[in-house]
Amino acid sequence: MNKWKVWIPAVLWILVIFTFSSQPYSKQDVRPWLKQQIPEKIVKEKLGHVKVHYDGSEISIQTKGVQGFIEFFIRKAAHVSSFAVLAVLIQWAVSRSWSTGIKGYILSFALALLYAGLDEWHQSFTPERTPKLTDVWIDTTGIFIGLWFIAAIRWGKRNILRPNGQQ
Fold this sequence. Notes:
single chain, mainly alpha, two-stranded antiparallel sheet, 7 helices, 2 strands, 73% helix, 5% strand
């Protein structure tokens, strides 16, 4: 495969992230949909005691309402999962075009982290969006998960194909 073609999936995924980051919050607000789908009484009973501190604020049902509380976790899960996918795509491209082994993982981590920072900076230009360093840390969690996932798959393939350390 052409050295640069392997980057197409990562670039396309960056464009997906960029598109979502370009949307004002009001276009992504899922609280009205959640209000129709989620039984508030059950959520209050089961999760009413849960409080999370995030970027200097308390996130709880009392402070955000049921829908806002659930949406918070959906949005943070989107950060983790989107950057896990990005890390996998970058690592795949790096390992086929530049470097394998630990150097490739370090480069993949650095590139994904660079984009996480740029994505938050980009949000500073988007109406109703706020860049947060805390979100970069959440993205970093996704990056680690993605790189761990691809490393585990590669390690498993190596050990399944060469049992007992055979060459």
